[in-house]
Amino acid sequence: MGVRIEVSIAKQILTLTKASGESVSWPVSTAKNGVGERQGSGCTPRGSHQIRIKIGEGLVANTVFIGRRPTGEIYDANLGDQFPERDWILTRILWLSGTDVGFNRGGQRDTQRRYIYIHGTPDSEPMGRPLSHGCIRMRNQDLIELFDQVDAGTPVQISET
User: Rounded CA gap, 30 and 49, in Å?
Assistant: First the structure.
């Protein structure tokens, strides 16, 4: 079996299983609004996904993204204080695409069209608690480690258990 990612909503853990069968896990933060697939819900979608696009390779940790493009800013506490309402997307983006037609792919339930990512967040943000706007947040160094071990097409399973 190849490389794959599993996200446990209940445990707030992302696990990468390598081709060798070895696995490594990191704490994450999924949606404050719980699970769901509908556009505009602010929920983390469930089911089978894949990494559609990897964004940010080689950029420094804490690079700020808006609209999947680096802004030229590097996040720090002062920038956070200056823009307290921003939903910070930092360091890297793994843009997800649902693979379950009618459930998380297509229409008003399309993960990719909802811009659901695995992405970095300020290190001051807690992990292990659902606080995101729908995406899967990770610590920046954890995300860099994950990013370097996966490719576009890597399967991602998001489950409530």
Answer: 15
